[in-house]
Amino acid sequence: MMTNKAKPRRPIEDYALIGSTEGAALVHRDGTIEWLCLPRFDSEAIFASLLGHRDHGAWQLAASDSTARVTRRYLPDTMILETTIETGAGKAMVFDLMPLPAIGGTHELVRIVHGLEGTVEITMDLRLRFNYGAWAPWVERKEGMIVAIAGPDAVRISSSVDLDNVDFATQARFHVAAGQDVATMLEWFPSHLEPPLPRDPHALMRRTAREWSLWAQGCTYAGPHAETVRRSLVTLKALTYRPTGGIVAAPTTSLPEMPGGVRNWDYRYCWLRDAVLTIYALTGSGFHEEASAWRWWLMRATAGAPDELQIMYGLHGERRLTEVELEHLPGYEDSRPVRVGNAAHDQLQLDVYGAVIGAFDAGRRAGLHDMDAVWPLQRAIAKNLLTLWKQPDSGLWEVRGPPRHFVYSKVMCWLAFDRMVASATDYKLEGPVEEWRQARDEIHADICANGYDAASNSFVQYYGASVVDAALLQIPMLGFLPADDPRVLGTIARIERELLENGVVYRYRTDGANADGLPGHEGAFLACSFWLCDAWTLCGRTQDASALFERLLSYGNDLGLFAEEYDPIAGRQLGNFPQAFSHFALINTAHTLAGQAGGIAEHLADASSPGPLS
């Protein structure tokens, strides 16, 4: 499917994530911060050169010697990036971090250069551009610091070296010797307020390292690839919006699914499709507090209109996510348009009903507190779904073509009623259990009659389709049919033939038959590849599953971060980065392969009570 073999100028995997659990930044391996959104993940970017060039906002901190050798890692179990620079004259480290925000609305980004050997000359070039690179701020010096203001946003820059303003940039050139530190701090604050005095950057680093390490100690996963799983969990914590518990799909917008194409979306919102995967990944790994916060975010976001669930919401549960195009930005590798907001928020996507009810059921089984408070909402959602499930929708992948009766959407509707019956029965909760049971069985029969193609012995993407969809790999994971059912085995085999290519799984064929509604192609969806591992494991093909899992792990970058998609021909990551969906899938697959509690396949495939296998 992928044919682009040109080496990208700045590949997505060359970036690192740092974050405060409220805002986030991407740091290129050359020491340039090219993306920064404060005070929220979805705020207008202060540095947006990721989607343009350096005059759209960037902050470079690097050796003056362009031949310097650079290596990097995260400090263990933290989101503190450590970059080691070696030149012929010396060796130094750069620490990049974003502490938890200060009381009073100030958000900080700290960069500390520490000399190790000899002397290293460092060059700094900081270009503040507000509103996604569109505005050059008004700049003044105050008490030895630089303050930049544009509209509601203000930024203060303080440093232990002298800073100069040259051509709308803040610059410095300095030497760091062994044992010497140079710290520079960027602080965002509301422009109508006076910020508090700057906090000590070294104390902030020590505190931030301690907070991350203490959090990571709660991890209970002890299977193979434990370090990779822990890194994924730390990444997901960094993508969690601390004030509300919502988890963003990614901290970026418009990183393309195909360079130069139009498949560029804003992922800085919270998707309901992730709901059940999130609960299993977090509770199975020991993080019940985060799972509980996500559960309450789900309840707040969907409350008030449980009969009209959106596919995504804002960080606080906002429903209006108006999509606009930023024409002043040329896009990553000329991928246009650059979008903020997401028009898919007003689509009908039936799978989210099963995802939400499944998440609440998973939380109840994991022992989360106060789950009885969620039951009335579950009943309201299920009541509406009694008739809604019969409608066509836009499907899991939010296609922008005509609505269809997507098989995966129907399976998730089945899951919703299956979990309602199971919850009511197992926990003695009140409700029309027989009505839910009848709906569950009716949906099951409808899918088997209309979503299965006997000629190919496989389920198809939507009723009457001639193509398959990788989401169908979840049929045995969800317990809709046993893994050894001939129809399941036939579906897996067909997905292997048609969607497994060069060692990775594509969502579907991007041609006219899949009702995509968009031109061009895309990379392989990493979550789908992890789902194939799950399906193979359930079918007893554990060696195949383990081999594929090992290969998929090699597609992460040197820091253990995964984007949404992967191009196996060009050997590069694609799509928004890092992607929560990929990391959730990785964690759940690791649990499944290890045979540990936590894998969604173990819980649902064994606990569900399917309807007639007709």
The CATH architecture of the largest domain would be Alpha/alpha barrel
Quote the distance from N terminus to C terminus: 35 Å
Q: Runs with pLDDT <50, length 5+? A: 1-7, 607-614
How is the quaternary structure best described?
single chain
Q: In total, how many beta strands?
A: 28
Mean pLDDT over all positions: 93
Query: Radius of gyration over alpha carbons?
Result: 25 Å
CATH fold-level assignment of the largest domain: Glycosyltransferase
Q: Using the coordinates above, name the CATH class of the largest domain.
A: Mainly Alpha
Shape: globular
Helix percentage? 25-40%
Number of helices: 15
Tally of domains: 2
Give a nutshell description of this structure.
By secondary structure, this protein is of the alpha+beta class.
Describe the protein in words:
The protein is of the alpha+beta class and 614 residues long. The chain has two domains: 15-194 and 204-215, Beta-galactosidase, Chain A, domain 5 (Distorted Sandwich); 218-607, Glycosyltransferase (Alpha/alpha barrel), CATH 1.50.10. It contains 15 helices and 28 strands. The strands form seven sheets. It has a 15-stranded antiparallel β-sheet that branches. Strands 26-27-28 form a three-stranded antiparallel β-sheet. The longest helix is centred in the C-terminal third of the chain and has 21 residues, at 407-427. It is globular. The two termini are 35 Å apart. Mean pLDDT is 93; it is low at 1-7 and 607-614.
